[in-house]
Recover the amino acids of this structure.
């Protein structure tokens, strides 16, 4: 519990990265990562819910009786998830229509409840906020990297349809890498498993050379 | 656990619930209008597609219908220098497997279906949601058919319409719902133009 903020961030984004190291939250990860823009949308929504719920849980933390903690935390997480859905519908409607289901099930993401229960409820508001944001960044990075790999290999494009998330000015951000999609299977469900497995292996190889 | 303790414990939970409700009320107040605008924009795009309006314009019906809920039955008249074409629309719903399937339907003057679009639904992902035009072309099979035709039924019920595999309830709901909606449109046919697209 005496780790510094820097250690906290390094832990949450790399050493204990919930996807690459703990292999949690794989359902939305595999389903949404077929394109970078989808992955980014879910990454931002997850980051928002994680940070919001971590901070709120740290604020109320010790005032909630022990046996009511899980329902109380679920209430907070469900509240932030609903807020994320409303905000997305207002500002990224097209994208919301495509990934609505996976935004809704952020509420059941075990990572968020785990961070609230194991960490945020026992620490200061600042540290809970830092941890929420860092865990969210770690999850988001895993999502976006997988999204980029699958989009590049499966569709031959990168950052296509970004205007769904960032408005009309992002319409030209996407570019074609190759004219014909190299390997269509990468955008299909089996490709998600293969690509995620290879990325996890790569991460382990790098982490292994650090003497861990 | 004694009842007094149960009651004492309930207060923090109630206070937290009130705080979350307040947060959501705030977010709802800030986003409600934009969400309604976004939904209306999408509905207008669907209507324009169903009328075959040019795709080079982003939102051809933007000046024609702006805000608020659509009537359940309405006519859009398309006026060009030498003709007036009327499109009959009905926004309606059918009870599917997961709940209400909301759709837009248009018919020609003989009651033949000229277009169907799904506005919203809660059918099973991977099965019932294949009715969305973005996911499969299942919905297109209704276009050009008349609900009074003898073969207006799912193939398994002796008709000519395909069911979505694994989603029989969804498919039946749409077959029956569309027929009922089309019948209402035909019976109540009038020549009113609720909205006018002026291309003169």
């Amino acid at each position: 519990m005496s780790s510094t903020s820097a250690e906290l961030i390094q832990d949450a984004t790399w050493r204990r990265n919930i996807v690459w190291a703990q292999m949690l939250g794989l359902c939305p990860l595999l389903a949404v990562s077929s394109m970078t823009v989808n992955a980014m949308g879910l990454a931002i929504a997850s980051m928002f819910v994680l940070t919001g719920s971590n901070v709120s849980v740290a604020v109320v933390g010790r005032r909630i009786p022990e046996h009511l903690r899980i329902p109380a935390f679920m209430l907070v997480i469900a509240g932030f998830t609903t807020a994320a859905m409303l905000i997305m519908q207002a500002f990224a409607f097209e994208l919301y229509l495509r990934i609505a289901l996976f935004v809704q099930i952020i509420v059941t993401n075990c990572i968020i409840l785990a961070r609230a229960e194991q960490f945020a409820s026992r620490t200061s508001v600042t540290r809970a906020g830092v941890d929420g944001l860092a865990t969210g960044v770690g999850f988001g990075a895993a999502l976006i990297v997988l999204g980029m790999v699958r989009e590049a290999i499966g569709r031959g494009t990168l950052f296509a349809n970004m205007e769904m998330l960032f408005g009309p000015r992002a319409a030209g951000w996407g570019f074609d890498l190759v004219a014909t999609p190299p390997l269509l299977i990468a955008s299909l469900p089996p490709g998600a498993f293969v690509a995620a497995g290879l990325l996890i292996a790569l991460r382990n190889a790098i982490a292994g050379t650090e003497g861990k | 656990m004694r009842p007094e303790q149960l009651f004492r414990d309930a207060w923090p939970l109630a206070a937290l619930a009130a705080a979350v409700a307040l947060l959501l009320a705030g977010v709802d107040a800030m986003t409600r209008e934009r969400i309604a605008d976004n939904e209306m924009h999408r509905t207008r795009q669907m209507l324009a597609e169903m009328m075959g309006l040019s795709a080079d314009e982003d939102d051809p019906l933007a000046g024609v219908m702006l805000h608020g809920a659509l009537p359940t039955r309405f006519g859009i008249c398309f006026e060009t220098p030498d003709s007036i074409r009327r499109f009959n629309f009905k926004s309606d719903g059918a009870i599917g497997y997961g709940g209400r399937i909301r759709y837009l339907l248009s018919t020609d003057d003989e009651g033949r279906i000229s277009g169907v679009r799904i506005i919203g639904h809660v059918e099973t992902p991977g099965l019932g949601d294949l009715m969305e035009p973005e996911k499969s072309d299942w919905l297109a099979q209704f276009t050009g058919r008349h609900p009074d035709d003898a073969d207006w039924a799912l193939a398994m019920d002796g008709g000519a319409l395909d069911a979505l595999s694994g989603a029989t309830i969804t498919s039946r709901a749409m077959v029956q719902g569309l027929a009922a909606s089309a019948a209402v449109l035909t019976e109540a046919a009038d020549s009113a133009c609720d909205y006018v697209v002026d291309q003169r």
Notes: Residues 101 and 121 of chain B are 4 Å apart (CA to CA). The longest helix of chain B spans residues 3-51. Chain B is about 35% helix and 20% strand.
